[in-house]
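Task 17 of the worksheet. Students: predict the tertiary structure of the chain below and write it out as structure tokens. Keep your answer in the requested format; marks are given for formatting as well as content.
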Amino acid sequence: MLKLNYYTLKDTFVRHPINKSNTKHSMNRSLNWVSRAGLRPTKQRIKLAQILIGDGENKHITAEGLFDLVKKSNVSVSLATVYNTLKAFCDVGLINEVMVDGGKSYFDTRLDDHPHFFWEDTGEISDAPSENLEINNLPNAPHEYEITKVDVIIRVKRSN
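Model answer:
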């Protein structure tokens, strides 16, 4: 197993900052986040994790958006690697996938159940308030199936 630590990855992240949060703390947060989930901490995974959670803020991002950000860091990552890494992060419960319009996926670093706004004018999503949201009277699941999750996506557009 390849063992990477802060010192072997340090130059890559410090020389090529993406945002103001690119510090030793964000590096350690990203490395720990990936390692605790049992994933091998490759340079690419750590860089993607740093973009996703390095500043401690929740994010909603597409694979293409993440790919564009990582390209600016001079870390060599293909779009396929970004998709595969996001899938791996989802599989181990580090992030959630939010599907919109049948095929467009956003990846959410906030893990609790919460609704989203889908902004039709911009094609982006954001967290929606959930304090007063109630989901009642769901239909029964088909025979031999169970409901595992209910996603609430509220579509909004600017009123004219």
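Marker's comment: Confidence is low (pLDDT under 50) at residues 1-22. The longest strand covers residues 96-100.
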